[in-house]
Amino acid sequence: MNKKSISVEKTDVVEYMRSFLTEEEKTVLDFQTKLICQFIEARKKQGISQRKLAELTEMKQPSIAKIEKEVTCPQINTLIKLLLPLGKTLAVVPIEK
Predict the structure, then answer these.
(1) How many CB atoms sit inside 10 A of residue 89's CB?
(2) End-to-end alpha-carbon separation of the chain, Å?
(3) Taking each helix axis from N to C terminus, what angle separates 50-57 and 76-83, rounded to the nearest 10 degrees?
(4) Residue 58: pLDDT above 70?
(5) E strand or H helix that includes residue 73
(6) Region 39-58: what's the mean pLDDT?
(7) pLDDT at residue 2, as a whole number
């Protein structure tokens, strides 16, 4: 019994999955992704590894990796805890249009 290989791009799968979401859910997902990307960028810009950030925050490195891979969505207090050693915080700002 031969199985045919199907080539599927990751972006195709993501778009298919997004087709089941409401506009509000898409907006929340996009916001979370942007926020995590900015967090990763700030960490890397300062040359801080996940392991070092884990030491600074008394968190476990695998937990930080899961947040960065968007496997889990951090609570606000966790995100602030991660941002503080990077000299960053959260703020309420107008929505970009």
Answers:
(1) 9
(2) 53
(3) 110
(4) yes
(5) none
(6) 97
(7) 53
